[in-house]
Hints:
The protein is of the alpha+beta class. The protein folds into 2 domains: 18-208 and 360-419, 3-Layer(bba) Sandwich (FAD/NAD(P)-binding domain), CATH 3.50.50; 213-351, no CATH class. The protein has helices at residues 29-40, 56-61, 74-79, 85-94, 97-106, 127-139, 192-197, 219-225, 261-265, 267-276, 292-299, 308-314, 319-328, 337-345, 400-419, and strands spanning 22-25, 46-48, 69-70, 111-113, 118-121, 143-145, 149-154, 157-162, 165-169, 173-176, 203-209, 213-214, 229-238, 244-253, 257-259, 280-285, 347-351, 362-367, 384-386. A 6-stranded antiparallel sheet has the order 12-15-14-13-16-17. A 5-stranded parallel sheet has the order 6-2-1-10-19, covered by helices on one side. Strands 3-5-4 form a 3-stranded antiparallel sheet. A hairpin with a 4-residue loop joins strand 4 and strand 5. The longest helix is centred in the last third of the chain and has 20 residues, at 400-419. It is elongated, with a radius of gyration of 25 Å.
Amino acid sequence: xxxxxxxxxxxxxxxxxxxxxxxxxxxxxxxxxxxxxxxxxxxxxxxxxxxxxxxxxxxxxxxxxxxxxxxxxxxxxxxxxxxxxxxxxxxxxxxxxxxxxxxxxxxxxxxxxxxxxxxxxxxxxxxxxxxxxxxxxxxxxxxxxxxxxxxxxxxxxxxxxxxxxxxxxxxxxxxxxxxxxxxxxxxxxxxxxxxxxxxxxxxxxxxxxxxxxxxxxxxxxxxxxxxxxxxxxxxxxxxxxxxxxxxxxxxxxxxxxxxxxxxxxxxxxxxxxxxxxxxxxxxxxxxxxxxxxxxxxxxxxxxxxxxxxxxxxxxxxxxxxxxxxxxxxxxxxxxxxxxxxxxxxxxxxxxxxxxxxxxxxxxxxxxxxxxxxxxxxxxxxxxxxxxxxxxxxxxxxxxxxxxxxxxxxxxxxxxxxxxx
Length: 420
Ligand SMILES: Cc1cc2nc3c(=O)[nH]c(=O)nc-3n(C[C@H](O)[C@H](O)[C@H](O)COP(=O)(O)OP(=O)(O)OC[C@H]3O[C@@H](n4cnc5c(N)ncnc54)[C@H](O)[C@@H]3O)c2cc1C
């Protein structure tokens, strides 16, 4: 076993806070936030990560503008975590959407509220924010050990695979922030489920969250419209409890089916339906701002010498919406205003399956909260904490994921500080 220096090497003072070797394993936003709280308190944690650089998923989130959090009222915000809200409440109380904005500001990044209520840094970029954050952490004493993949844990020995072979370490306290298993090329593979599962801990199977769904599009539709947004539609269906789920928004036609924010928001409920029975049909109101009778009246108007397409186009029915009709109605039925109206107002979109976890934005399932105490410490393994997407919760996109994982990082670090 490597003799590991437990003191801050450059420290001349020997305060008690420097005498603990605290390891944070996983340099995503959850682990980095834990490091920030600990280093702000005078400790010098070491962050280990399998990848050559930190927080690759956080960086990818920057491609969508880095939606840090949401500005809706706090009660509604907290309800976005579904059944896990009760377990996440302490994290959200410790690190609210407002705290997220203050945190970004403390690093020199002002935020703004977009038209949908989502909160972004002014430049909508992740890289400058992450660079500044890591710089501050290092300046505050946090050390980084990259290319260290946790491969085993036995008693007090933590085993890592490194470019120089297997290395064993022992620590005074450990915060595990190993992520879920979506987009595994970014670092989080879910391999930790074996390491923790072997310890007898309860782990729910990892599943995709905020993912796309497969639709059997015709070849011609797929070729023409893959990548096309379907704007201003209202999606509705009943969830497994019979509750009506309905929302206005935008989705994206993909090569395999559908994806995008409107779909992601409902991905948990649709996944649950598909797990019970597939395929599952959801409904789209393709003209939510026109009533059935308005639409019917317009479609019953005189077509004259115009082609059906030109007639529809004048009514605003063209492109992807017109082609969707052709996907489900035979040619001879397209001139029947009543049927066309009904189909436009309640378009049946049959979802065959959900896309795999490797493609998803986030992960559902994971280490159950019943394994953890109120500080997110493993009940059976004192001074080992678990935080972030590796825990059994999910939330839609909209800034809920980053707020949730960073809140948990803070909660565990505060818990550890209490113990120390
Ligand atoms: C395309 C995309 C866009 C997103 N956009 C947003 C957004 O705008 N807003 C939002 O709120 N959320 C967004 N998310 C989700 C958000 O990025 C994640 O929820 C968040 O990064 C999870 O944080 P985490 O620290 O728990 O895990 P991760 O970020 O996955 O970090 C875990 C770390 O642990 C390391 N690791 C894993 N296993 C090991 C091991 N065995 N040994 C050592 N290290 C290991 C990994 O390399 C990784 O660095 C997005 C996700 C994706 C994929």
